[in-house]
Amino acid sequence: MPQVSEVQRLNTDDKDWLDKELVARGFSGYDELENLCHKRGIDISSSSLHRYGQTFRERLDQVKMITEQARAVVAEAPDDEGAINEALMRLVQEKLFTVIRDAQISGDIPLDKIAKAIADLGRASVSQKRLAAEARKQLLQEQRQKLDALGDKGGVTEDTKQAIREALGIE
């Protein structure tokens, strides 16, 4: 089993402080950061800080890139039916599966937090499907009203309107 890094052993407050310092310093100045850590009572080497900083920066860069790509996708293809959310939920589900698998091997991730994330994701999925169904129902109702309001304009017969209703699933 790999050794737990010094940074991973930090309490939440110190870890949050360290993350903010790394970002504020542009992921540089590790010797000075080591001195600041010592002043805070954190015994950690500049090399450990650098290793952690590199990984943290890579993850931060990935999140930024994914965010920018998501914005571009939404701008190019508006998501009226929630397809992007559904795809995102599937990606998160896959990631959680990987985390669970890895946690069983390493034993260093609390499964109660993963279970909560899975439950939250399930609720989000159900809510999204409910909203999509309500949106579809509303759209069909609007189409029915427009079709009914059409009357016999333009030579549209009642048989034609009935065929349109059947094709759209409007009753």
From TrEMBL:
UniProt-listed InterPro entries: Phage_Mu_Gp27 (IPR021874)
Protein known as: DUF3486 family protein
Organism: Microbulbifer okhotskensis
Origin: domain of life: Bacteria
Pfam families per the UniProt record, alphabetical: Phage_Mu_Gp27
